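@channel sequence for tomorrow's demo:
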Amino acid sequence: MARMDISLEFWVQQPGFRQVIAGNQEGFVFQIDDDRTLNAAVVPITNIAYTNTGAQFVATIYAVNHNLAIGQFIVIEDYNGVTDLVNQVFQVDLVIDANRFNIITDTGNAYLGNAYFRTVSIIDIVSKQWNPYVKEGRDVFVSKIDFAVKKTDHGALQIDYYASSGTLSTLNEAFGTATLLGTGNLSTAPYPAVRRENSATRLWHPVYLQNEGECIQIRISQSWPQSTDINIVDSDFQLEALILHCMPTTTRLE
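structure tokens (generated this afternoon):
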């Protein structure tokens, strides 16, 4: 659910099952649905003031106890009148105080009321450090990983990876040296050229790593373009399995 100052959770007894309901800082009461992939739009926007910076607009959004931090992503819903801001993902550019924050927009049309916003939960998962050959005292080379994911219409993620318990992003380092062998993109949508995937419920899609180290660790997250695409951030993500394609390499003493 959306982040909030005050939360009330209790069980509602109904025949055969239980449901969780909660309340937020504005007095809204809503049901928690574990099958829904979106956060609820439960924080009302009382006003939006625009400042023209030339190429773009700074939109100051007034929302009582918004609870947001710089860098978070939101989606505005139920915008009255002009709908230029609806169903887009915006990143919080500045938090002014508890009741005001800024986003950057392309338009500055007058706000007519009735809008709410919801937060966007950005996926960010870090795996353990893997080496199937640790008992043999050998390093590992991983050529690719096959991911079994639930099929979506638009979903996508970014797979970054780290070698030898290091903290340097391999994707970032490869971009900087122009040695990138792939984008690290993992699509959970069917490949257009593979027709049989349209009727599948689970997809096997590869990501090529071509990396070696004492161990390999991956990070499943969303890049900036992915984080600002509403079709992607509103897509479900279910990882059912993964297969490492790897081989042993040098010993630890070499």
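heads up for whoever presents: Residues 123 and 221 are 5 Å apart (CA to CA).
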